Amino acid sequence: MILYEADRLSTDALLYIRWLLEKHKNTKVFFCCSDVSKLQPIKPLCSVLKLLPPSRDEIIQVLEFIAKQEGIHLPYRLAEKIADSSKNNLRQAIRSFEATWQKTNRLMEDQVILTGWEDDIAMIAKKITQEQSSKQ
Q: Domain of life, per the record (predicted)?
């Protein structure tokens, strides 16, 4: 079992998980989190592993792999730009790659990199501030 953002779990939830882990000792659970200090109730039962974010080169390799699997020509310089704009966030890089591809269906080195749903939210916010009405 994998629990993402486990540091957002309530203390009660963590205590219940601790009880389950003590009862079922052969169960393997992975807790993914940004702040391990918030997992105090279960920390004695866990082995803590710190994983570093992917490097720029690793992100480029993943983008190239996805492009190859999807039959998309991804210029190397555009892959570099996407990796740089993602700030070592692989999910963001993949979202940007997908959003940019969906917008143009042809990738070029010098094109604008989109960020996916973040662009939609920015556009909605802009419309709301321009026309403050119940319609918006």
A: Eukaryota
Which SS3 state, helix, strand or coil, does residue 65 take?
Answer: helix
What global pTM score does this model have?
A: 0.63
On whether both 35 and 62 belong to a single domain, the answer is no
**Residue type at 91 in one-letter notation:** R
Q: Is residue 62 domain-shared with residue 39, that is, in the same domain?
A: no
**Contact of 66 with 97, CB cutoff 8 Å:** yes
Residue keyed to tokens 């989109």? 114
Q: Measure the CA–CA gap between 82 and 72, rounded to whole angstroms.
A: 15
Residues 85 and 108 in one domain: yes
Write out the residue range of the structural domain in which residue 103 sits.
Answer: 56-128
